[in-house]
Amino acid sequence: MTYRSLCILTFTALISACSSRPIEPTTPPPESVNAISKWETSGRVGIRTKNDAVSGNFNWQKGPKTFDLSIVGPFGQGATNLTQTTDGKVILSYEDKVITGNDPATLLQHELGWEFPVSQVTYWIRGLVAPTSAAQVTRNPDNNLPEKIEQDGWVVNYSNFTKVDGLSLPQKMQVSNPPFRVNLIINQWAVQ
């Protein structure tokens, strides 16, 4: 081997050693929808109450004890944010107001007139029954995915699912308890 070849070989080895990164361990995807411990989803939302109709974009991050739900109206107008901290405190922010409480559904009802069972929806948005009460589930006979969940006076209809890390998760759903209705079109999922 010539001196020139040895220099080229050494230089190439040094460059490739500098450019390679150590492989970081990655969290394996959950094995089932029930095993999801953290998730984030975003998309479009339509909310109808007996006196109002609101539409916009939403982003929802959910951890084992926390969540952050943001709804932003068209053109960035009318932002509403609902957060639960690790100590269970719930914070509702909208129209330059910040209100705290212990129950997200109660805050939404009292402050905005929105009836939205946040605790149950954290399950329904994944196509699961909330474990807090009895429910009736209608399943698609072809794929065994839920078509409808009836629980706590609410009806959840699923019209489309998508695959995320091998799991079937809702992409389009409606949560209703007349006169209240929430339509979700989920554009993006991230799960752990």
TrEMBL record:
Keywords: Cell outer membrane, Chaperone, Lipoprotein, Membrane, Palmitate, Protein transport, Signal, Transport. SUPFAM superfamilies: Prokaryotic lipoproteins and lipoprotein localization factors. One of its GO terms (biological process) is protein transport. InterPro entries: LolA/LolB/LppX (IPR029046), OM_lipoprot_LolB (IPR004565). GO terms for cellular component: cell outer membrane. It is a lipid-anchor. The keyword DNA damage does not apply. It is found in: Cell outer membrane. Its main location: membrane. Gene3D superfamilies: Lipoprotein localisation LolA/LolB/LppX. Plays a critical role in the incorporation of lipoproteins in the outer membrane after they are released by the LolA protein. Belongs to the LolB family. Monomer. This is Outer-membrane lipoprotein LolB. It comes from Marinomonas rhizomae. The lineage of its organism: Bacteria, Pseudomonadati, Pseudomonadota, Gammaproteobacteria, Oceanospirillales. The gene is lolB.
